[in-house]
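Quick one, tokens below. Sequence please?
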């Protein structure tokens, strides 16, 4: 079976990280996010993958190449303009129409058992099977109602509490028969959720419930949460093996000065320098080649590769993108995001989900937010 991975979206909710890096290439525990999707496909016996791309496609192509490093054959198709989830799949029809195929949103971290999903699809002889996952707050999502036999009975878009009779949502992974292509108009924007699936209700559309780990990494809070879940091994990923029994993972040679403190769980990238008197963790992921000076603290946060924290910086529940630097005594907290290559000088306070754009320079003591 072949798989189409949808990676064409602009990832607006994850800005400013996605202004310079497409969402699938935003690092998760120091690897491009979508590499976890590829690993999962490969581990479930999928050998051919089509990337359906749009926004910033070049980085994806150059990183994955022909896919052989991942044990996969990878093909790339780039849209001239966004075609929506179903339009994007119609656009790659020629590569997958020779049988049933998988479609995956490229921004979902999950350990869903794809084999069981495919077996279920086959056992029902379904035209389409949607993986479903339960959520705590059903009002925030489009819900999927199924009958006892698993057939989809209908969809409820962001319902009020009195309308709710299910907590299952579309998990962004589908198995489809090629006849689904007949339902998608070519060359224009079209969606599975609003276009294709409602047409298939009562005509061979099934839902497959899974209680596996599931997280859409598309917002900063969920992106952070996905990291915490990797650190706590709530989700099975290729990083799990590196986290030792003390929940510390060093991804290569790290220079940890005597008197520097790691508080697990933590992941430290190759070539990092952590000076005496600095504290990293708990819940910190540090990208390769970062320098953390004395007196600085990083907790519940992500530093992408090549970041520098000068002395006495505090980073808490925040994200610092590749190559950014933070000057002495600055506090970065409360869901703040510092974009790629930005420079925040000393004595600033960035909190309250403030987002600093890539390359920006914030002068000393100018923000107390
Ligand atoms: P937001 O702008 O933050 O909503 O993110 P997004 O653009 O990624 O949209 P969304 O999270 O709804 O998309 C779900 C998945 O479908 C992601 O993996 C997207 O990359 C992908 N996707 C969304 N729209 C398109 C499209 O028009 N073409 C392609 N090829 N993929 C798309």
């Amino acid at each position: 079976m072949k798989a189409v991975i949808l990676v064409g979206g602009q990832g607006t909710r994850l800005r400013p990280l996605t202004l310079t890096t497409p969402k699938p290439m935003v690092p998760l525990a120091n690897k491009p996010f979508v590499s976890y999707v590829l690993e999962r496909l490969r581990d479930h016996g999928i050998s051919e993958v089509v990337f359906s791309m749009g926004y910033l496609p070049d980085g994806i192509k150059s990183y994955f190449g022909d896919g052989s490093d991942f044990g996969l054959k990878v093909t790339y198709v780039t849209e001239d303009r966004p075609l929506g989830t179903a339009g994007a799949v119609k656009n790659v029809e020629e590569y997958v129409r020779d049988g049933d195929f998988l479609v995956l949103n490229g921004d979902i971290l999950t350990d869903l058992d794809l084999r069981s999903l495919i077996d279920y699809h086959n056992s029902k002889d379904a035209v389409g099977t949607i993986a479903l996952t339960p959520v705590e707050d059903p009002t925030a999502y489009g819900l999927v109602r199924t009958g006892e036999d698993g057939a989809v009975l209908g969809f409820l878009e962001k319902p009020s509490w009195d309308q709710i009779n299910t907590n299952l949502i579309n998990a962004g992974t589908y198995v489809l028969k090629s006849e689904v292509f007949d339902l998608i108009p070519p060359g224009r924007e079209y969606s599975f959720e609003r276009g294709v699936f409602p047409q298939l209700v009562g005509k061979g559309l099934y839902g497959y419930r899974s209680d596996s780990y599931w997280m859409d990494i598309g917002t900063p809070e969920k992106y952070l949460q996905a990291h915490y879940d990797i650190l706590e091994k709530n989700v099975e990923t290729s990083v799990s093996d590196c986290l030792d029994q003390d929940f510390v993972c060093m991804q290569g040679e790290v220079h940890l000065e005597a008197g520097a403190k790691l508080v697990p769980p933590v992941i430290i990238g190759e070539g990092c320098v952590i000076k005496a008197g600095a504290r990293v963790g708990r819940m910190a992921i540090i990208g390769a080649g970062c320098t953390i000076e004395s007196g600085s603290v990083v907790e519940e946060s992500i530093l992408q590769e090549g970041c520098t924290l000068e002395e006495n910086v505090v980073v808490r529940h925040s994200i610092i993108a590749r190559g950014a630097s933070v000057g002495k005594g600055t506090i970065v907290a409360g869901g703040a995001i510092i974009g790629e290559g930005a420079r925040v000088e000393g004595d600033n306070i960035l909190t309250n989900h403030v987002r600093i754009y890539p390359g920006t320079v914030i002068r000393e003591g100018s923000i107390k937010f």
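Residues 22 and 186 are 25 Å apart (CA to CA). The chain has eight helices and 33 strands.
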